[in-house]
């Protein structure tokens, strides 16, 4: 069997400070910038080159309407490996929910995406619920570290988790 070497570090491209809207929130030295179809988190303590900042995290988003409510779907999250495991992602999701309205999980989740939503439910700083067939169901954090609902199965159906 042939093996390949994958890069150990995933560096996101830097971003020009002048192209970003004002920050929607801060997490220590990181600032969260909410754009129309993307959320960008930058590290204000490090400059790549003049006028450019290191991107810590980038989230592709899109909007959908369900029952007259516009949700921002947190579609695809990329994180610089140097910042993985620091607990930034759930706090970014909280800032996005508070600054731009309700957020929703994507229709499929990676283990990392699932961990973000589990932590979001556990922290309890936002109201979280499961959305299934137009009805909201309560979501709780279980003793095993997963979020669950007594009324609907979260991961074996097309139910989505929402946070406000």
Please provide a written account of the structure.
With 164 residues, this protein is α+β, with helices and mostly antiparallel strands. It is built from two helices and twelve strands. Strands 1, 2, 3, 4, 5, 6, 7, 8, 9 and 12 form a ten-stranded mixed β-sheet that branches. Strands 10-11 form a two-stranded antiparallel ribbon. Helix 1 (88-100) packs across helix 2 (111-123). The protein is globular and about 55 Å long. The termini are far apart.
Keywords:
2 helices, 164 residues, two-stranded antiparallel sheet, 12 strands
Summarize the structure.
It is built from 2 helices and 12 strands, in the order E-E-E-E-E-E-H-E-H-E-E-E-E-E.
Amount of beta strand = 35-45%
* Shape assignment: globular
The topology string of helices and strands comes to EEEEEEHEHEEEEE
**How many distinct helices?**
2
What is the average of the pLDDT values? Answer: 86
Distance between the termini: 48 Å
Helical fraction: 10-25%
Radius of gyration: 17 Å
Structural class: alpha+beta
Overall number of strands = 12
Major β-sheet annotation: 10 strands, mixed
The unreliable regions are none
């Amino acid at each position: 069997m042939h093996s390949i070497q994958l890069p150990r570090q995933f560096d996101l491209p830097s971003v020009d400070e002048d192209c970003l809207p004002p920050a929607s929130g801060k997490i220590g030295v990181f600032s969260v910038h909410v754009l129309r179809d993307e959320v960008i988190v930058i590290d204000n303590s490090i400059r790549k080159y003049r006028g450019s900042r290191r991107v810590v995290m980038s989230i592709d988003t899109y909007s959908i309407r369900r029952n007259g409510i516009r949700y921002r779907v947190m579609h695809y999250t990329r994180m610089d490996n140097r910042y993985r495991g620091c607990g930034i992602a759930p706090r970014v999701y909280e800032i996005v929910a508070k600054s731009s309205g309700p957020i929703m999980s994507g229709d499929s989740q990676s283990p990392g995406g699932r961990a973000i939503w589990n932590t979001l439910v556990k922290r309890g700083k936002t109201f979280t619920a499961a959305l299934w067939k137009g009805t909201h169901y309560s979501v709780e954090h279980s003793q095993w570290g997963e979020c669950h609902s007594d009324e609907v199965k979260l991961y074996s159906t097309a139910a989505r988790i929402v946070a406000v």
